[in-house]
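ARCHIVE CARD
Drawer: 12
Card no.: 0347
Subject: one protein chain, sequence and derived structure
Cross-reference: see card 0346
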Amino acid sequence: MNLPESYIPILIQAGVAVAFVAVSLLGAHFLGPKQKKGNSVKNQSWECGVPVEGNARTPFSIKYFLTAVLFVLFDIEIVFFYPYAVNFREFGMEGFLAVLTFVAIFFMAFFYVWKRGALDWDK
């Protein structure tokens, strides 16, 4: 297999990343604290010194997950705006039209979410 020369740095970076993960996981396993399985009181869950009540598998409202997805959506929007804000003069009219298209699509998604009631927290 003959790889182009431009792939070598990518392969080196991927190898370093995989090696770092492997060393970190193995180091944590071998150097980390060991728990004894026989001590049931010590292995119980505590939250700020208060005994646990109920089951940890209690279902959550979908609003928590929807809030997280919307946060990621708005956060990614900012990530895409940053390069345009830094280089807006070099992009010219073509870049401006591309950003307007992005904003239009984003606002369509925002109004869709709004109309579906995802932003009504009282319901």
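Annotation on reverse: The chain has a mean pLDDT of 82. The first helix runs from residue 8 to 31.
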